[in-house]
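B., you asked whether I could sanity-check this one before it goes into the benchmark set. Here's the sequence:
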Amino acid sequence: MKKLGILAAILMMQSAFAQTNRFVYQVTMKPDASNKSDIKTENAYLDISPEKSMFYSENRIKRDSVMQANRQSGGARGFNRDQMESLRTNINYSIEKNKKNQKTLYKDRLGRDQYSYEEDRPLDWKILPETTKIGEYKVQKAETEFGGRKWTAWFTTDLPYQDGPYKFSGLPGLIVKAEDASGDYSFDLMKNYKISDFPEMTTFGNVVKVKRTDYVKQQEKFKTDPMSFMNQSGGGIRMGNRGGGNQNPADMRKRMEERVKDEAKRNSNPIELK
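And here's what the prediction gave me:
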């Protein structure tokens, strides 16, 4: 009985250690370069386990859940347009950091497929002596230049994770706040709690692994010719006809191009400028 008690205690400890820690960040963005007064704010999750971490939009996982339920019901439920509109996100990407090999994987969807690349630019942090307090955490200042922006981060050693939002990591503690010098993007830690495991991320279409520079080229191509990405074979969001009638392919192409160009304009101030 004593051995069983010890074994149960060990299993409980292992279960507690295996739990994933979720850190919720408020992300503030000014994505439209021509309209800096248009400020977008939404929450994003940084889920951390001993093996890896994932950073992604809260709305993304909620939206995926709604779409998955609709697919499983064969479309019988239909989409609540207002609900889907409320779950729109400016954080369409997800970022996975592997703790063992120290690699950062970026994933984003272009058209039907999901593109993935390994980040090839290491972060070079300059840790400064300045300290302050943010919420309940004592934090220290650090700076870096990344993606064409100068970033200031505040990290805390109160939380034993050398991680942070977006692609940021490598400081002696968790990043509580990060902001670029122009004030276009900021990440602020709001709260944290434990979850049982990482959520399952829905993947539409194929996963296309490319180099970062090739992804940038594909992204630019998508902005000018989005339909070439929709015509590829594979899965993806079905171009359904809500009215039940046949849609003219030329009209579909025109609407798609207009929508992508409009989104490109509204996202003309990306988090990475180069």
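One thing to flag: Residues 6-17, 233-245 have pLDDT under 50 and may be disordered. Otherwise nothing jumped out at me.
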